[in-house]
Amino acid sequence: MELKKLDVPTTSITEVKKSPMDVFEQAREAGTAVYVFNREKVAGVMLTQEQYENLLQELHSRPQVEEEPLESVAGLDDFLGVMREALITGSTVSAKNLDERMVALGFITRKTGFGGVVDMVNELKQTGKIVYQLRKKHNGTNIVAEVIGEQDNQASMFDKVIIKKIHLKEVE
């Protein structure tokens, strides 16, 4: 397995324990967060107070985007456009969050009963995709969405999914 090189400063948990102020200084000098590793896995991220407050301010100043249910969109191309705004290809998202976004867009949830997220991740591992069906027929046709991706093995949580592509299909 090839390790990814991060374009941000990194440190170890041991260094944080020795001198947390050095890590904050490293973040201040780099103008970005410092990833903290514990046994070759990201344990967390350290920011200066100013960086954290700037992130919060930026988050609160972002306009709220309401996700449009796909039943109200004209055609498959429009469906796909709305979905690509809600699910950015190349991004990493938890399986739970993916399911919540798909439900908000009008699809049937995949988290059925206990262990639904585990079932989603297993489907992704086996087939390379998670398949959703639109709750209501669109123009008399069933719509199926395939979220193609892979499990993010670098993430600390098992349910992180890297979204690679999104396909929509009309089915009988």
From TrEMBL:
InterPro entries: YefM-like_sf. It comes from the Bacteria. Belongs to the phD/YefM antitoxin family. This is Prevent-host-death family protein. The lineage of its organism: Bacteria, Bacillati, Bacillota, Bacilli, Lactobacillales.
